[in-house]
Model the fold of this input.
Amino acid sequence: MVYFQKWKMVLGGAATLLCLGAFCDKDGLSGAVAAEKLTITSAVMCEDVQDRLPLYEGVVFSISTGRVVCYTLFDPVPEKTVITHNWYNRDNLSTKIKLPLLPPRWTTYSAIQLRESDKGPWRVEITDSEGQILQVLRFSVTD
Amino acid sequence: MDGFLIFIQSIRWQDVVDITLCSYILFRCYVIFRITNAYRILIGLAFLWIFQRLAVSIGLIVTSWVIQGITAVAALIIIVVFRNEIRSVLQIKNIKALFWGRPHQPIHTPVQIIADSVMALARKRIGALIVFPGKEDINEKIQSGILWDGAISQEMITSIFWEDNPVHDGAIIIEGNRIHEVGVILPLSHRQELPSYYGTRHRAAVGMAESTDSLVVVVSEERGTVHVVKDSTITPVLKKDDLEKHLQQHLGLVIKDPSSQKKEKIEIRIAAMVSVILITSVWLTIARGLDTLVTFEIPIEYMNRNPGMEIIDASVNGIKIQLGGSGPLMRTLRPDHVRIKIDLGKSVVGQNTYTITNENISLPPGIFIKSFYPDVVDVTLDVPDKKDLPVQVDWTGKLSENLRMEKVTIEPSVVQIIGGRQLLKNITTVYTEKIPLESIQSSRTIIVNLALSPASLKVAPGFKDKITVECTVKDQSKNGL
Done:
Protein backbone atom coordinates (compact mmCIF):
# COMPACT_ATOMS: atom_id res chain seq x y z
CA MET A 1 0.00 0.00 0.00
CA VAL A 2 2.82 2.29 0.92
CA TYR A 3 4.66 1.41 -2.23
CA PHE A 4 1.54 2.02 -4.26
CA GLN A 5 1.04 5.45 -2.73
CA LYS A 6 4.67 6.30 -3.25
CA TRP A 7 4.52 5.11 -6.82
CA LYS A 8 1.54 7.33 -7.43
CA MET A 9 3.34 10.22 -5.90
CA VAL A 10 6.37 9.67 -8.04
CA LEU A 11 4.25 9.46 -11.16
CA GLY A 12 2.68 12.79 -10.26
CA GLY A 13 6.08 14.29 -9.53
CA ALA A 14 9.42 14.60 -11.10
CA ALA A 15 10.52 11.10 -11.86
CA THR A 16 8.42 10.37 -14.86
CA LEU A 17 8.23 6.97 -16.32
CA LEU A 18 9.20 7.42 -19.90
CA CYS A 19 8.97 4.12 -21.46
CA LEU A 20 8.12 0.56 -20.90
CA GLY A 21 9.36 -1.56 -23.68
CA ALA A 22 9.24 -5.19 -24.41
CA PHE A 23 10.82 -7.07 -27.19
CA CYS A 24 10.16 -10.68 -27.75
CA ASP A 25 13.06 -12.68 -29.06
CA LYS A 26 11.54 -14.99 -31.68
CA ASP A 27 14.55 -17.33 -31.72
CA GLY A 28 13.79 -18.92 -28.33
CA LEU A 29 12.01 -22.24 -27.86
CA SER A 30 9.53 -21.89 -25.06
CA GLY A 31 8.96 -25.65 -24.56
CA ALA A 32 12.63 -26.40 -24.10
CA VAL A 33 13.20 -23.78 -21.33
CA ALA A 34 10.02 -24.26 -19.36
CA ALA A 35 11.74 -26.16 -16.55
CA GLU A 36 14.66 -23.69 -16.29
CA LYS A 37 15.09 -20.79 -13.89
CA LEU A 38 14.48 -17.16 -14.76
CA THR A 39 17.95 -15.71 -15.31
CA ILE A 40 19.24 -12.19 -15.92
CA THR A 41 21.73 -12.30 -18.74
CA SER A 42 22.42 -8.61 -18.82
CA ALA A 43 21.45 -5.67 -16.61
CA VAL A 44 22.96 -2.24 -17.15
CA MET A 45 22.22 1.44 -16.64
CA CYS A 46 22.32 3.41 -19.87
CA GLU A 47 21.11 6.54 -21.52
CA ASP A 48 18.94 4.90 -24.12
CA VAL A 49 17.96 1.63 -25.81
CA GLN A 50 18.18 1.14 -29.52
CA ASP A 51 17.44 -2.07 -31.38
CA ARG A 52 17.02 -3.88 -28.08
CA LEU A 53 20.53 -2.93 -27.06
CA PRO A 54 21.66 -0.48 -24.37
CA LEU A 55 23.19 2.76 -25.59
CA TYR A 56 25.83 4.71 -23.61
CA GLU A 57 26.19 2.41 -20.60
CA GLY A 58 27.56 4.02 -17.48
CA VAL A 59 27.42 4.48 -13.74
CA VAL A 60 27.30 8.29 -13.64
CA PHE A 61 24.61 10.22 -15.49
CA SER A 62 24.32 13.96 -15.85
CA ILE A 63 20.96 15.63 -15.41
CA SER A 64 21.61 17.19 -18.79
CA THR A 65 21.15 13.77 -20.43
CA GLY A 66 17.48 14.04 -19.49
CA ARG A 67 16.83 10.47 -18.54
CA VAL A 68 18.38 7.25 -17.36
CA VAL A 69 17.39 3.75 -18.38
CA CYS A 70 17.61 0.43 -16.59
CA TYR A 71 18.09 -2.22 -19.28
CA THR A 72 17.57 -5.91 -18.47
CA LEU A 73 17.86 -9.03 -20.63
CA PHE A 74 16.44 -12.31 -19.36
CA ASP A 75 17.45 -15.64 -20.85
CA PRO A 76 15.84 -17.97 -20.31
CA VAL A 77 12.36 -16.92 -19.34
CA PRO A 78 10.73 -20.23 -18.38
CA GLU A 79 7.20 -18.91 -18.27
CA LYS A 80 5.16 -15.78 -18.57
CA THR A 81 5.91 -13.67 -15.51
CA VAL A 82 6.50 -10.16 -14.30
CA ILE A 83 9.58 -8.55 -12.88
CA THR A 84 9.84 -5.21 -11.09
CA HIS A 85 12.36 -2.40 -11.38
CA ASN A 86 12.47 -0.64 -7.99
CA TRP A 87 14.17 2.73 -8.31
CA TYR A 88 15.70 4.10 -5.08
CA ASN A 89 17.15 7.57 -4.61
CA ARG A 90 19.51 6.92 -1.70
CA ASP A 91 17.37 4.66 0.50
CA ASN A 92 14.04 6.14 -0.51
CA LEU A 93 11.89 4.28 -2.99
CA SER A 94 11.34 6.63 -5.87
CA THR A 95 9.33 4.47 -8.23
CA LYS A 96 8.37 0.88 -8.77
CA ILE A 97 7.82 -0.36 -12.32
CA LYS A 98 6.33 -3.76 -13.14
CA LEU A 99 7.41 -5.26 -16.45
CA PRO A 100 6.00 -8.39 -18.11
CA LEU A 101 8.32 -11.14 -19.39
CA LEU A 102 7.42 -13.75 -21.96
CA PRO A 103 9.28 -16.96 -22.75
CA PRO A 104 11.70 -17.93 -23.99
CA ARG A 105 13.90 -14.80 -23.93
CA TRP A 106 12.94 -11.25 -23.12
CA THR A 107 14.47 -7.83 -23.07
CA THR A 108 12.81 -5.05 -21.10
CA TYR A 109 13.68 -1.71 -19.61
CA SER A 110 12.37 1.15 -17.51
CA ALA A 111 13.46 4.75 -17.37
CA ILE A 112 13.05 7.87 -15.30
CA GLN A 113 13.14 11.48 -16.29
CA LEU A 114 15.91 13.33 -14.45
CA ARG A 115 15.33 16.54 -12.52
CA GLU A 116 17.57 18.81 -10.49
CA SER A 117 16.40 17.25 -7.23
CA ASP A 118 17.33 13.77 -8.43
CA LYS A 119 21.05 14.34 -7.96
CA GLY A 120 22.75 11.79 -5.76
CA PRO A 121 23.33 8.06 -5.54
CA TRP A 122 20.66 5.77 -6.94
CA ARG A 123 20.06 2.06 -7.17
CA VAL A 124 17.64 -0.12 -9.08
CA GLU A 125 16.62 -3.39 -7.49
CA ILE A 126 15.38 -5.91 -10.03
CA THR A 127 12.99 -8.31 -8.34
CA ASP A 128 11.02 -11.30 -9.57
CA SER A 129 7.28 -11.79 -9.23
CA GLU A 130 7.75 -12.94 -5.63
CA GLY A 131 9.83 -9.91 -4.69
CA GLN A 132 13.15 -11.75 -4.59
CA ILE A 133 16.03 -9.48 -5.59
CA LEU A 134 17.63 -10.77 -8.78
CA GLN A 135 20.19 -7.98 -9.19
CA VAL A 136 20.99 -4.49 -7.93
CA LEU A 137 22.36 -1.79 -10.24
CA ARG A 138 24.00 1.30 -8.69
CA PHE A 139 24.60 4.64 -10.37
CA SER A 140 24.76 8.34 -9.61
CA VAL A 141 22.93 11.35 -11.01
CA THR A 142 25.13 14.43 -11.08
CA ASP A 143 25.23 17.98 -12.46
CA MET B 1 1.68 41.47 51.81
CA ASP B 2 1.69 39.18 48.79
CA GLY B 3 5.41 39.80 48.36
CA PHE B 4 6.01 38.80 51.96
CA LEU B 5 3.98 35.60 51.52
CA ILE B 6 5.90 34.74 48.33
CA PHE B 7 9.13 35.37 50.21
CA ILE B 8 8.07 33.07 53.08
CA GLN B 9 7.01 30.37 50.62
CA SER B 10 10.32 30.60 48.79
CA ILE B 11 12.31 29.78 51.93
CA ARG B 12 13.58 26.24 51.68
CA TRP B 13 14.40 23.87 54.52
CA GLN B 14 18.07 24.20 53.53
CA ASP B 15 17.85 27.95 54.21
CA VAL B 16 16.47 27.34 57.71
CA VAL B 17 19.24 24.81 58.43
CA ASP B 18 21.79 27.23 56.97
CA ILE B 19 20.76 30.10 59.24
CA THR B 20 20.37 27.88 62.32
CA LEU B 21 23.79 26.27 61.92
CA CYS B 22 25.65 29.49 61.27
CA SER B 23 23.85 31.29 64.12
CA TYR B 24 24.76 28.49 66.50
CA ILE B 25 28.41 28.54 65.38
CA LEU B 26 28.56 32.29 65.97
CA PHE B 27 26.85 31.93 69.33
CA ARG B 28 29.27 29.20 70.42
CA CYS B 29 32.21 31.37 69.37
CA TYR B 30 30.83 34.04 71.69
CA VAL B 31 30.34 31.57 74.57
CA ILE B 32 33.82 30.09 74.16
CA PHE B 33 35.78 33.31 73.63
CA ARG B 34 33.83 35.78 75.78
CA ILE B 35 36.03 35.18 78.81
CA THR B 36 39.16 36.11 76.86
CA ASN B 37 40.64 39.50 76.05
CA ALA B 38 40.84 38.46 72.41
CA TYR B 39 37.06 38.45 72.29
CA ARG B 40 36.82 42.21 72.63
CA ILE B 41 39.29 42.60 69.81
CA LEU B 42 37.29 40.13 67.71
CA ILE B 43 34.18 42.24 68.25
CA GLY B 44 36.19 45.23 67.03
CA LEU B 45 37.20 43.27 63.97
CA ALA B 46 33.59 42.36 63.27
CA PHE B 47 32.66 46.05 63.37
CA LEU B 48 35.54 46.82 61.03
CA TRP B 49 34.21 44.23 58.61
CA ILE B 50 30.70 45.71 58.81
CA PHE B 51 32.10 49.19 58.13
CA GLN B 52 34.06 47.83 55.20
CA ARG B 53 30.92 46.27 53.69
CA LEU B 54 29.04 49.52 54.27
CA ALA B 55 31.83 51.46 52.57
CA VAL B 56 31.66 49.09 49.59
CA SER B 57 27.88 49.36 49.36
CA ILE B 58 27.89 53.16 49.29
CA GLY B 59 30.82 53.26 46.90
CA LEU B 60 33.64 54.51 49.15
CA ILE B 61 36.32 52.66 47.25
CA VAL B 62 39.48 53.90 49.00
CA THR B 63 37.90 53.73 52.46
CA SER B 64 36.80 50.16 51.86
CA TRP B 65 40.32 49.26 50.74
CA VAL B 66 41.88 50.86 53.79
CA ILE B 67 39.45 49.19 56.21
CA GLN B 68 39.95 45.89 54.42
CA GLY B 69 43.71 46.22 54.84
CA ILE B 70 43.38 47.18 58.52
CA THR B 71 41.04 44.25 59.13
CA ALA B 72 43.43 41.79 57.50
CA VAL B 73 46.45 43.09 59.43
CA ALA B 74 44.49 43.29 62.69
CA ALA B 75 43.30 39.70 62.30
CA LEU B 76 46.90 38.60 61.85
CA ILE B 77 48.09 40.63 64.84
CA ILE B 78 45.33 39.24 67.05
CA ILE B 79 46.26 35.69 66.17
CA VAL B 80 49.93 36.38 66.98
CA VAL B 81 49.36 38.42 70.16
CA PHE B 82 46.63 36.31 71.64
CA ARG B 83 47.84 32.97 70.39
CA ASN B 84 48.35 31.57 73.87
CA GLU B 85 45.00 32.77 75.10
CA ILE B 86 43.22 31.41 72.03
CA ARG B 87 45.12 28.14 72.40
CA SER B 88 44.18 27.79 76.06
CA VAL B 89 40.50 28.32 75.15
CA LEU B 90 40.58 25.79 72.35
CA GLN B 91 42.54 23.23 74.36
CA ILE B 92 39.42 21.87 75.91
CA LYS B 93 39.76 18.30 77.09
CA ASN B 94 36.06 17.66 76.62
CA ILE B 95 35.25 18.20 72.92
CA LYS B 96 31.55 18.23 73.76
CA ALA B 97 32.14 21.47 75.63
CA LEU B 98 32.94 23.15 72.29
CA PHE B 99 29.40 22.50 71.09
CA TRP B 100 27.26 22.50 74.22
CA GLY B 101 27.25 24.00 77.70
CA ARG B 102 29.95 26.14 79.25
CA PRO B 103 33.40 25.21 78.05
CA HIS B 104 35.16 26.31 81.21
CA GLN B 105 33.48 24.70 84.11
CA PRO B 106 35.76 25.88 86.95
CA ILE B 107 37.68 23.30 88.83
CA HIS B 108 37.64 24.63 92.35
CA THR B 109 40.99 25.14 93.89
CA PRO B 110 41.04 24.03 97.54
CA VAL B 111 41.71 27.54 98.79
CA GLN B 112 41.24 26.64 102.44
CA ILE B 113 43.87 23.88 102.32
CA ILE B 114 46.29 26.18 100.54
CA ALA B 115 45.69 28.98 103.03
CA ASP B 116 46.18 26.60 105.96
CA SER B 117 49.38 25.27 104.36
CA VAL B 118 50.78 28.75 103.72
CA MET B 119 50.09 29.86 107.29
CA ALA B 120 51.65 26.68 108.63
CA LEU B 121 54.76 27.27 106.47
CA ALA B 122 54.98 30.83 107.78
CA ARG B 123 54.74 29.70 111.36
CA LYS B 124 57.51 27.17 110.77
CA ARG B 125 59.52 29.82 108.85
CA ILE B 126 59.74 27.69 105.79
CA GLY B 127 60.15 29.78 102.68
CA ALA B 128 57.60 29.19 99.91
CA LEU B 129 56.66 30.57 96.53
CA ILE B 130 53.26 29.62 95.08
CA VAL B 131 52.01 30.80 91.69
CA PHE B 132 48.31 30.87 90.72
CA PRO B 133 48.19 31.55 86.94
CA GLY B 134 45.46 33.81 85.57
CA LYS B 135 44.12 33.69 82.00
CA GLU B 136 47.46 34.27 80.33
CA ASP B 137 49.85 31.52 79.39
CA ILE B 138 52.88 31.62 81.69
CA ASN B 139 55.01 28.96 80.03
CA GLU B 140 57.18 31.48 78.25
CA LYS B 141 57.97 33.32 81.53
CA ILE B 142 59.03 30.38 83.69
CA GLN B 143 61.95 27.96 83.49
CA SER B 144 63.14 24.59 84.76
CA GLY B 145 59.81 23.41 86.10
CA ILE B 146 59.42 19.76 87.03
CA LEU B 147 56.05 18.27 86.21
CA TRP B 148 54.34 17.17 89.40
CA ASP B 149 50.61 17.01 88.77
CA GLY B 150 49.81 16.04 92.33
CA ALA B 151 46.74 16.56 94.45
CA ILE B 152 46.85 19.49 96.84
CA SER B 153 47.25 18.72 100.50
CA GLN B 154 48.86 20.53 103.43
CA GLU B 155 51.39 17.74 103.86
CA MET B 156 52.32 17.79 100.20
CA ILE B 157 52.88 21.57 100.13
CA THR B 158 54.91 21.43 103.32
CA SER B 159 57.05 18.58 102.02
CA ILE B 160 57.76 20.38 98.73
CA PHE B 161 59.12 23.44 100.53
CA TRP B 162 60.93 21.41 103.21
CA GLU B 163 64.52 22.58 103.11
CA ASP B 164 65.92 19.09 102.40
CA ASN B 165 63.72 18.74 99.35
CA PRO B 166 65.80 19.32 96.17
CA VAL B 167 63.02 21.48 94.65
CA HIS B 168 62.25 23.56 97.74
CA ASP B 169 63.94 26.70 96.37
CA GLY B 170 61.76 26.91 93.30
CA ALA B 171 58.15 27.96 92.98
CA ILE B 172 55.16 25.71 92.59
CA ILE B 173 52.41 26.30 90.05
CA ILE B 174 48.87 25.51 91.17
CA GLU B 175 46.29 25.04 88.44
CA GLY B 176 42.81 24.03 89.48
CA ASN B 177 43.00 21.43 92.20
CA ARG B 178 46.48 20.15 91.23
CA ILE B 179 50.05 21.15 91.93
CA HIS B 180 51.07 21.30 88.28
CA GLU B 181 54.82 21.98 88.49
CA VAL B 182 57.47 22.30 91.22
CA GLY B 183 61.01 23.74 91.29
CA VAL B 184 59.99 26.45 88.85
CA ILE B 185 62.33 29.41 88.32
CA LEU B 186 60.43 32.68 87.99
CA PRO B 187 61.58 35.89 86.28
CA LEU B 188 63.12 38.38 88.71
CA SER B 189 61.85 41.93 89.06
CA HIS B 190 64.25 44.74 88.28
CA ARG B 191 62.39 47.31 90.34
CA GLN B 192 64.75 49.47 92.37
CA GLU B 193 62.29 50.62 95.01
CA LEU B 194 61.73 47.20 96.51
CA PRO B 195 62.79 46.99 100.17
CA SER B 196 66.34 45.81 100.63
CA TYR B 197 65.30 42.98 102.86
CA TYR B 198 63.39 41.41 99.98
CA GLY B 199 65.40 38.44 98.85
CA THR B 200 65.39 36.55 95.60
CA ARG B 201 62.15 34.78 96.46
CA HIS B 202 60.27 38.09 96.80
CA ARG B 203 61.89 39.55 93.68
CA ALA B 204 60.84 36.43 91.76
CA ALA B 205 57.29 36.79 93.07
CA VAL B 206 57.14 40.43 92.00
CA GLY B 207 58.77 39.66 88.64
CA MET B 208 56.22 36.95 87.89
CA ALA B 209 53.25 39.11 88.94
CA GLU B 210 54.53 42.01 86.86
CA SER B 211 55.02 40.02 83.66
CA THR B 212 51.83 37.95 83.84
CA ASP B 213 48.35 38.13 85.31
CA SER B 214 49.28 35.49 87.91
CA LEU B 215 48.85 35.87 91.63
CA VAL B 216 51.91 34.84 93.62
CA VAL B 217 51.98 33.97 97.31
CA VAL B 218 55.40 34.28 98.91
CA VAL B 219 56.37 33.14 102.42
CA SER B 220 59.50 34.66 103.93
CA GLU B 221 61.93 32.18 105.38
CA GLU B 222 63.66 34.77 107.60
CA ARG B 223 60.63 36.67 108.95
CA GLY B 224 57.84 34.12 108.55
CA THR B 225 55.66 36.70 106.78
CA VAL B 226 53.19 36.06 103.98
CA HIS B 227 52.77 38.40 101.01
CA VAL B 228 50.37 38.24 98.11
CA VAL B 229 51.74 39.77 94.91
CA LYS B 230 49.41 40.69 92.06
CA ASP B 231 50.39 42.95 89.16
CA SER B 232 52.76 45.42 90.82
CA THR B 233 51.11 45.33 94.20
CA ILE B 234 52.66 43.54 97.16
CA THR B 235 50.11 42.98 99.91
CA PRO B 236 51.14 41.62 103.31
CA VAL B 237 48.74 38.99 104.65
CA LEU B 238 48.42 38.43 108.34
CA LYS B 239 45.34 36.28 108.61
CA LYS B 240 44.35 33.10 106.93
CA ASP B 241 40.93 34.58 106.02
CA ASP B 242 42.58 37.47 104.16
CA LEU B 243 44.68 35.04 102.16
CA GLU B 244 41.58 33.00 101.31
CA LYS B 245 39.82 36.15 100.08
CA HIS B 246 42.77 37.10 97.90
CA LEU B 247 42.87 33.62 96.39
CA GLN B 248 39.11 33.38 95.88
CA GLN B 249 39.04 36.75 94.19
CA HIS B 250 41.91 35.83 91.86
CA LEU B 251 40.55 32.39 91.06
CA GLY B 252 37.03 33.67 90.45
CA LEU B 253 35.62 31.57 93.26
CA VAL B 254 33.56 34.36 94.76
CA ILE B 255 30.02 33.07 94.81
CA LYS B 256 28.00 35.11 92.44
CA ASP B 257 24.87 36.64 93.75
CA PRO B 258 21.57 35.71 92.04
CA SER B 259 21.33 39.07 90.27
CA SER B 260 24.68 38.62 88.54
CA GLN B 261 23.71 35.07 87.51
CA LYS B 262 20.48 36.42 86.05
CA LYS B 263 22.44 39.14 84.27
CA GLU B 264 24.73 36.51 82.77
CA LYS B 265 21.75 34.46 81.55
CA ILE B 266 20.23 37.55 79.93
CA GLU B 267 23.59 38.32 78.32
CA ILE B 268 23.75 34.81 76.88
CA ARG B 269 20.21 35.06 75.55
CA ILE B 270 20.88 38.44 73.96
CA ALA B 271 24.01 36.97 72.37
CA ALA B 272 21.93 34.11 70.93
CA MET B 273 19.38 36.55 69.49
CA VAL B 274 22.06 38.82 68.07
CA SER B 275 23.70 35.78 66.44
CA VAL B 276 20.41 34.81 64.75
CA ILE B 277 19.70 38.38 63.63
CA LEU B 278 23.24 38.87 62.34
CA ILE B 279 23.31 35.60 60.39
CA THR B 280 19.81 36.18 59.01
CA SER B 281 20.92 39.61 57.80
CA VAL B 282 23.99 38.14 56.14
CA TRP B 283 21.87 35.37 54.60
CA LEU B 284 19.36 37.89 53.28
CA THR B 285 22.18 39.92 51.79
CA ILE B 286 24.04 37.04 50.20
CA ALA B 287 21.46 34.39 49.44
CA ARG B 288 18.26 36.31 48.81
CA GLY B 289 19.28 39.27 46.76
CA LEU B 290 17.39 38.29 43.61
CA ASP B 291 19.13 40.66 41.32
CA THR B 292 21.05 38.59 38.79
CA LEU B 293 19.99 36.30 35.97
CA VAL B 294 22.35 33.98 34.11
CA THR B 295 21.70 31.71 31.15
CA PHE B 296 23.57 28.45 30.65
CA GLU B 297 23.24 25.63 28.15
CA ILE B 298 23.49 22.51 30.27
CA PRO B 299 24.09 19.09 28.67
CA ILE B 300 21.55 16.45 29.59
CA GLU B 301 22.77 13.51 31.69
CA TYR B 302 21.03 10.22 31.00
CA MET B 303 20.81 7.84 33.92
CA ASN B 304 19.84 4.20 34.50
CA ARG B 305 20.08 3.28 30.81
CA ASN B 306 19.50 -0.38 30.11
CA PRO B 307 23.01 -1.71 29.35
CA GLY B 308 21.54 -3.63 26.42
CA MET B 309 20.40 -0.45 24.72
CA GLU B 310 22.18 2.54 23.28
CA ILE B 311 21.11 6.12 22.78
CA ILE B 312 20.89 6.49 19.03
CA ASP B 313 19.53 9.97 18.87
CA ALA B 314 18.24 12.80 21.03
CA SER B 315 16.18 15.77 19.92
CA VAL B 316 18.51 18.12 21.84
CA ASN B 317 21.90 17.79 23.43
CA GLY B 318 21.38 20.40 26.09
CA ILE B 319 18.79 22.55 27.80
CA LYS B 320 19.05 26.32 27.78
CA ILE B 321 18.30 27.32 31.35
CA GLN B 322 17.92 30.79 32.85
CA LEU B 323 18.83 30.95 36.52
CA GLY B 324 18.40 33.67 39.10
CA GLY B 325 19.95 34.46 42.46
CA SER B 326 21.93 37.05 44.33
CA GLY B 327 24.90 38.65 42.62
CA PRO B 328 27.58 37.10 44.86
CA LEU B 329 26.11 33.62 44.38
CA MET B 330 25.65 34.00 40.65
CA ARG B 331 29.23 35.19 40.21
CA THR B 332 30.49 31.93 41.65
CA LEU B 333 28.03 29.81 39.66
CA ARG B 334 29.51 27.68 36.87
CA PRO B 335 27.67 25.50 34.35
CA ASP B 336 29.00 22.33 35.98
CA HIS B 337 27.20 23.30 39.19
CA VAL B 338 23.91 22.77 37.37
CA ARG B 339 22.85 19.26 36.36
CA ILE B 340 19.94 18.10 34.28
CA LYS B 341 19.22 14.40 34.57
CA ILE B 342 16.79 12.14 32.74
CA ASP B 343 16.04 8.72 34.14
CA LEU B 344 16.04 6.18 31.29
CA GLY B 345 15.05 3.35 33.66
CA LYS B 346 11.66 2.89 32.00
CA SER B 347 12.74 3.64 28.43
CA VAL B 348 11.91 1.30 25.57
CA VAL B 349 13.48 0.63 22.17
CA GLY B 350 12.51 3.44 19.83
CA GLN B 351 11.61 7.03 20.59
CA ASN B 352 10.97 8.00 24.21
CA THR B 353 9.57 11.42 25.06
CA TYR B 354 10.52 13.02 28.37
CA THR B 355 9.13 16.22 29.84
CA ILE B 356 11.72 18.18 31.78
CA THR B 357 10.50 19.46 35.13
CA ASN B 358 12.25 21.18 38.03
CA GLU B 359 12.78 17.74 39.54
CA ASN B 360 15.13 16.89 36.67
CA ILE B 361 17.29 19.91 37.46
CA SER B 362 19.63 20.06 40.44
CA LEU B 363 20.95 23.46 41.52
CA PRO B 364 23.24 24.77 44.24
CA PRO B 365 21.40 26.25 47.25
CA GLY B 366 20.14 29.78 46.78
CA ILE B 367 19.76 29.54 42.99
CA PHE B 368 16.33 29.36 41.39
CA ILE B 369 15.11 28.50 37.92
CA LYS B 370 13.65 31.34 35.91
CA SER B 371 12.95 29.38 32.75
CA PHE B 372 14.33 26.62 30.55
CA TYR B 373 13.95 25.50 26.95
CA PRO B 374 13.06 23.04 25.52
CA ASP B 375 10.98 21.29 28.14
CA VAL B 376 10.46 18.14 26.07
CA VAL B 377 13.26 15.83 24.96
CA ASP B 378 12.89 12.92 22.57
CA VAL B 379 15.44 10.18 23.14
CA THR B 380 15.74 7.31 20.72
CA LEU B 381 17.15 4.11 22.09
CA ASP B 382 18.06 0.98 20.23
CA VAL B 383 19.65 -2.40 20.73
CA PRO B 384 23.19 -2.60 19.29
CA ASP B 385 23.41 -4.80 16.20
CA LYS B 386 25.60 -5.52 13.17
CA LYS B 387 24.69 -5.53 9.51
CA ASP B 388 26.61 -6.19 6.31
CA LEU B 389 25.90 -3.33 3.91
CA PRO B 390 26.97 -2.72 0.32
CA VAL B 391 29.09 0.35 -0.35
CA GLN B 392 28.11 2.88 -3.01
CA VAL B 393 30.10 5.82 -4.29
CA ASP B 394 28.53 9.24 -3.89
CA TRP B 395 29.65 11.21 -6.94
CA THR B 396 29.19 14.95 -7.12
CA GLY B 397 29.95 17.72 -9.58
CA LYS B 398 30.12 17.32 -13.32
CA LEU B 399 32.12 14.93 -15.43
CA SER B 400 33.76 16.39 -18.51
CA GLU B 401 31.46 16.38 -21.54
CA ASN B 402 33.69 14.03 -23.51
CA LEU B 403 34.02 11.50 -20.67
CA ARG B 404 31.71 8.71 -19.66
CA MET B 405 32.15 6.65 -16.52
CA GLU B 406 31.54 3.13 -17.62
CA LYS B 407 32.44 1.09 -14.59
CA VAL B 408 33.23 1.48 -10.92
CA THR B 409 34.80 -1.21 -8.77
CA ILE B 410 34.68 -0.80 -5.02
CA GLU B 411 36.92 -2.57 -2.53
CA PRO B 412 35.59 -3.63 -0.09
CA SER B 413 32.19 -3.71 -1.73
CA VAL B 414 30.54 -4.71 1.56
CA VAL B 415 31.32 -3.52 5.08
CA GLN B 416 29.93 -4.55 8.41
CA ILE B 417 28.31 -1.68 10.26
CA ILE B 418 27.51 -1.51 13.98
CA GLY B 419 24.53 0.49 15.11
CA GLY B 420 21.08 0.35 16.60
CA ARG B 421 18.90 -2.48 15.36
CA GLN B 422 15.98 -0.22 14.42
CA LEU B 423 18.32 2.17 12.68
CA LEU B 424 20.10 -0.54 10.71
CA LYS B 425 16.77 -2.02 9.69
CA ASN B 426 16.10 1.02 7.48
CA ILE B 427 19.59 1.27 6.04
CA THR B 428 20.40 -0.77 2.95
CA THR B 429 23.49 0.99 1.64
CA VAL B 430 26.44 2.91 3.05
CA TYR B 431 27.79 5.71 0.94
CA THR B 432 31.26 7.08 0.57
CA GLU B 433 32.13 10.70 1.13
CA LYS B 434 31.36 12.77 -1.91
CA ILE B 435 33.90 12.42 -4.72
CA PRO B 436 34.08 15.40 -7.11
CA LEU B 437 33.83 14.32 -10.73
CA GLU B 438 35.89 17.32 -11.83
CA SER B 439 38.96 15.49 -10.52
CA ILE B 440 38.34 12.56 -12.86
CA GLN B 441 40.07 13.00 -16.21
CA SER B 442 40.92 9.40 -16.86
CA SER B 443 40.54 5.96 -15.32
CA ARG B 444 42.04 6.02 -11.85
CA THR B 445 41.91 4.69 -8.30
CA ILE B 446 40.66 6.84 -5.43
CA ILE B 447 40.80 6.16 -1.68
CA VAL B 448 37.83 7.62 0.14
CA ASN B 449 36.22 7.48 3.60
CA LEU B 450 32.76 6.21 4.36
CA ALA B 451 30.18 8.85 5.24
CA LEU B 452 28.26 7.16 8.02
CA SER B 453 25.06 8.87 8.99
CA PRO B 454 23.88 9.18 11.71
CA ALA B 455 27.11 9.44 13.65
CA SER B 456 26.12 6.59 15.96
CA LEU B 457 26.91 4.15 13.15
CA LYS B 458 30.39 2.65 13.18
CA VAL B 459 32.39 0.32 11.00
CA ALA B 460 32.77 -3.04 12.76
CA PRO B 461 36.28 -3.94 13.92
CA GLY B 462 38.17 -5.84 11.23
CA PHE B 463 36.54 -3.92 8.40
CA LYS B 464 38.22 -1.10 6.52
CA ASP B 465 36.70 2.34 6.77
CA LYS B 466 38.79 3.45 3.78
CA ILE B 467 37.25 2.46 0.49
CA THR B 468 39.23 1.95 -2.71
CA VAL B 469 37.28 3.15 -5.74
CA GLU B 470 38.58 2.10 -9.12
CA CYS B 471 36.77 3.97 -11.88
CA THR B 472 36.93 3.21 -15.59
CA VAL B 473 36.38 6.27 -17.74
CA LYS B 474 35.89 6.27 -21.50
CA ASP B 475 36.79 9.22 -23.69
CA GLN B 476 33.80 9.45 -26.03
CA SER B 477 35.44 11.98 -28.36
CA LYS B 478 38.07 9.43 -29.41
CA ASN B 479 35.36 7.00 -30.43
CA GLY B 480 33.36 9.63 -32.22
CA LEU B 481 30.49 9.19 -29.80
